[in-house]
Design a protein that fits this description.
310 residues, alpha+beta
């Protein structure tokens, strides 16, 4: 991995819109470097030789007016004729529609079927097939949020009362980190999400698994499930159980996700223990209470139950 590559780098593009943005960025970097060198050369000439032509009317007009006018106009034309048509053309005929709702401070995700009804729900993670245009329908449940996954596309705000749409297309296999790019409250900095692109066959296998109800080995987590349904079912859903709450994330297949707490912790047994017992220390201001009243055995049993919901 080079210095510019990374899960949240706009200079390591993985989709057509991001390639255009990166191209424009490199053009700006190169142009700025050339202009800086030119200005430094003129400064050196002015200091060492003090030529009269540097202070002439024509030099001021060319350097102070015509040159910026030509450069900025060229950048404007390149942006309008290069990036914008690609962005507009990309919204045609998406093969997959995903609804994303910004919440304080996590991402509610629903995959829609051909009738545009929710097929299944997940949270803080989007999986897409490589090479397939995916339409994102962006909403907010509370305040302003902004959806931004730099390696795939630019930012788009999520505005109360509106549904904003744009299309992403991952042109290679990978996993990229996204972020809310609009200050939305105390835990704004801890509102991450992941976009994971996989080959079409692997994506379809994952999709079939996500449609299914939660499944764990019979008798393996009865105690943990009982603790969960007694304490967590009001806010969370686990399909196939009595937990049908909608205030918090759907946890039907939570163990299959990259992280918990919207990017705060890796997804494993110890992280579930820490999050359930002390989430306010890990993500101050989040809307989930800390269940520090659970006994150690109850905490371990419910954490083991969740860590097995894949």
């Amino acid at each position: 991995m080079n210095a510019l590559d990374g899960p949240q780098s706009a200079l390591a593009p993985a989709g057509p819109e991001a390639h255009d943005i990166a191209r424009t960025a490199w053009m700006l970097f190169g142009g700025a470097a050339l202009i800086f060198v030119l200005v430094m050369v003129l400064v050196a000439i002015a200091i060492s030789r003090r030529p009269r032509w540097l202070s002439s009317r024509s030099t001021v007009v060319v350097g102070g007016f015509l040159f910026p006018l030509v450069v900025l106009s060229a950048l404007l034309v390149d942006s309008l004729l290069g990036v914008q048509p690609r962005l507009l053309a990309s919204v045609v005929r998406p093969e997959l529609v995903v609804e994303i709702v910004g919440e304080q401070w996590w991402w509610r995700v629903a995959y829609l079927d051909d009738r545009e009804q929710p097929e299944f729900a997940t949270a803080n993670e989007i999986r897409v097939p490589v090479g397939v245009p995916v339409e994102l329908r962006l909403k907010t449940a509370d305040v302003l949020h902004s959806f931004w996954v730099p390696p795939l596309a630019g930012k788009l705000d999520m505005v109360p009362g509106r549904t904003n749409r744009f299309v992403i297309l991952a042109d290679r296999v990978g996993s990229w980190r996204g972020q809310c790019a609009e200050y939305c409250g105390a835990a704004h900095a801890h509102m991450a999400l992941y976009v994971i692109a996989r080959p079409a066959s692997e994506f379809e296998q994952w999709r079939r698994g996500q449609r299914a109800d939660a499944s764990v080995a019979a008798g393996s987590h009865d105690a943990g499930r009982a603790v969960f349904e007694a304490n967590c079912a009001v806010c969370h859903t686990v399909r196939g159980t009595d937990a049908t709450g909608v205030r918090g994330p759907d946890l039907t297949h939570v163990a299959s996700r990259t992280s918990i707490g919207a990017g705060v912790l890796p997804n494993d047994f110890s992280s579930f223990e820490r999050w359930i017992s002390s989430n306010q220390h890990l993500k101050p201001g989040n809307l989930m209470p800390a269940f520090d009243q659970l006994t150690q055995d109850e905490l371990r049993s419910v954490a083991a139950y969740l860590a097995d919901l894949d």
